[in-house]
Structures are given as structure tokens and as C-alpha cells.
Amino acid sequence: MRVEIVLRYVGLVLIFNAVFLFISFLLALYLSETTDIPLLYSMLIALIFGLLPIIYVQQTSYISILEGISIVVFGWITTCLVGALPYMLWGGEFSLINAWFESVSGFTTTGSTILTDIEMLPKSLIFWRSSTHWIGGIGIILFTLLILPKSSTSKLTLLNTEMSKLAKADFKYRAKEILRILLYVYLGLTLLETVFLMIAGMSFFDAINHSFATIATGGFSTKNLSIAHFNSVPIEIIIMAFMVLSGLHFGLIFNTILGKSNNIFRSSVIRAFLIFLIVGITLVSLKLYYNGTYTWWTSVRYAAFQVISVGTTTGFATADSVEWPGFTRLILIYFTIQCAMAGSTSGGMKFDRVWIFFKAIVKHVKIIQHPRAVILLKVGGKAIDEDIVKDTMVFIIFYLFIIFITTLLLTLLNVDMITAFSSSVATIGNVGPGFGEVGSMGNFSGLPDLGKFILTINMLLGRLEIFGIFSLFFIKSWR
Which of 38, 164, 256, 450 could form a disulfide with 90, with the two C-beta atoms 3.0–4.6 Å apart? Predict the structure, then answer.
């Protein structure tokens, strides 16, 4: 493996971070905030360490798979380290581990926070915090790919490393076109939501920050009470609509805009995903109403928002679901495990894998009934390759095993069972809030430092779909 090539691409990633740090720095200067120096120093560090390998390492048109995986993994880790600098240099609640936690949570679009008073942060630091969502949502490596030479085979290697087979399944384009599609949809949704939120009554600052968080399916809010602070049905409806859109495959959204046949209205996986959300909303609404927790329409209002929020791995909140009946909390935990679709900004398991899992069960039952029959597993009328099915099953088992191990480690640190389990599920799913101490109106500040660090590993595993990171630990198998 050529370490210098890895450093060159990681340098490109740092330069993208430096751009947003510079914007945050200008905002700090404009508002005369105390974050100007921390943001300036952070920007300079990112810029210097980003430019040095670009200046001294010659560009290559080819990178190996090992180099590609190393670039992706170390690109994310380095980005999170740089992202923690403004927090640490500013101080406040940001100890070393808290700054790392907030940075990883932002870039992986998890949305879990250690902050007990978000509104006390300077606006420039809040903007940087939201920017980490927006940078991480589309994938920092995908931003880097946009500036590579058109004919570069490195582009294809990195794209294959950053995106799963499921995410690429509905893309019938070349690498460069895929990147443009992702960027057009990402920018378009962000701008549209910002405009709609401003029309609904949000200030421009709140609107752009919440758009960053929604489209990235992240969940960082500018307010301590999240979306509940606004207590506005129009704002909630707008955010719910864009959470759903951001949880769908961006390639299919692009095809829908162009009027192509392979679109969101003809996708059986999207239909199934939406049906799951509707069933979840209905069940939670009915339970809240018949338990006397809220009136009928209030039950529907809160149930719809919370189910969509966790079901798309966004993590915004309009109510304290910790106080809800156990039945409703179990449904929310299910959606926290299921997550949204491949090809979206969602992290975690992905609904596509869950759908393939259910289809595989049906196929297995049919094989038992008809042992000699040749039965294909189809999704959307297309036969799914057996390798993808096997990959899906291995992924799901490994995913659940990591949740178990993380929960075990947290309980070893004397974290209560509900908090340990739900925080494990919420962080690997890049969802954000859990239950217990880390509920939708709570935060992760009370967890032990080692527990916070373990959960940041979970966040990275969920965002990078587990195997990219683990493959680096098996160096001998690459030879």
C-alpha cells in the first residue's frame, strides 16, 4: 500500500473541512463572537495538513482496493479529529472526549449530543456543528471524488468503497454522473427545505441549520428542545416531508424529477418502506390515544413525527418519547434498528437489507415446501444475486452482534440496561436519541468517558457499514 497516496486523498478531505471552517470563522467575525480564534486555528491546521501531501505527493490515476478502503476510513477519522478542534479550543462543556463525541456524531449524521445547553453556544459554533452534518451526510469522500480527473480509475475504486452494492443498485450511470446526481439532489433538497422553513416562520439561521440536519438525516438542532421548541405544525410537516425524501434513494429521486420510468413511484422497496412507516405511525398513534396520553390528533401528530424521525435516522424530536408506553417505545426501537434506504443519507442497517431478509424467509419457506423447485429471490421484479443475499445476512447478524457487544460493554461500565441498549442501537444506526438517560429530550453527557468513546466507534461502524473498518485489521489477508 502506498501511504503517500492515502495521505494525498485524506488531504483533499481536510481541505473541504477547511472551507466550512472558514465560513464559520467569517460568521464569528461578523457576529463578534469568541469562537473566531478557535475556528481560525482549526481552519489553518486543516488547510496546512491538507495542502502538504497534495503539494509533495504526485497524483495517480490508479489506487488499489486496500488504498481505497484506507482513504475512506482514515478520511473519516481524520475529519472527525479536525472537526473536534473548534470545540476543544473553545472550551465550555467540550472536554477532549466530549469534543470527539460531538464531532463524530456530527460527521456520521448520528445527532447524539453531550451538550446540556445548546442555545448557549455561539452561533458560529452552532453553524460549524450543523456543517459537520451536511459534510458527512453526502459522504466526505464523495465530495473529494468530484475534483478527480474524469478518466481516473481512482474515482471508481473510491466510489465502490464509499457506496454499498445496494446503494449502487438503482444507479445506471457512470461514476462521474452518480456524483453529480447525488450533489444535485442534495443541494436541491437543502435549498428547498430552507425556503419552506423560512416561509413557515423560522429565521434564516435556524432554517439553514435545520435543513443541513434534515437532508443529512442527522438531527442536530439549534434548540435545546429540538423541533418541539417551535411548537409549529407547518414546520413539523415540512421537516417530516424532507426527512422522508432524505431517507429515499437519491438516484430514484433524480429519476423521478427527470420523468424516467425507474422512479420512486414504481419502486416496490420504497412502497414497502413507506408502508412500514405508516403502520408504525398508526400503531403508535392508537396506543398513545387509548392510553390517554394525548388526544387523537395530538397522538397522530407526535407519533408521525417520532416514527419518521427515527425511521429515517434523523433523530429530531417534538415530544419526550421516554414517557410513552412500552409498546410505542419498542416500535421506535424497531425503526431505530431498521433505518432508512440504501442510496440515501441514512446510516445503519438500511431498510433494503431488512426487505431482502423478509424476502429470504419467504423463499426459504417455499424451498421447504418444494425442495426441487428453483426459486429466485426478487425485489422490484428483479432477481437479486445470491452474493448480495449472503452479504445481507452476514451484515445483519454482525450488526446485531455489535449491538449486543456494545450493550455488554456499557453495562460493564454501570450504565443501566435501557440506556445501554438503546444508545447502542441509536449510535450504530446513526439515529441519535435512545431511551433512559439518552432519550429524545436528554443527552449523552452523563455516560462515562469510556462509554462515550465506545459509542463513537459504533457511529463510525454504522456510517461506514462495518466491514470497511474491520477489513483494515486483517492486513495479512491483503497479501
Answer: 38
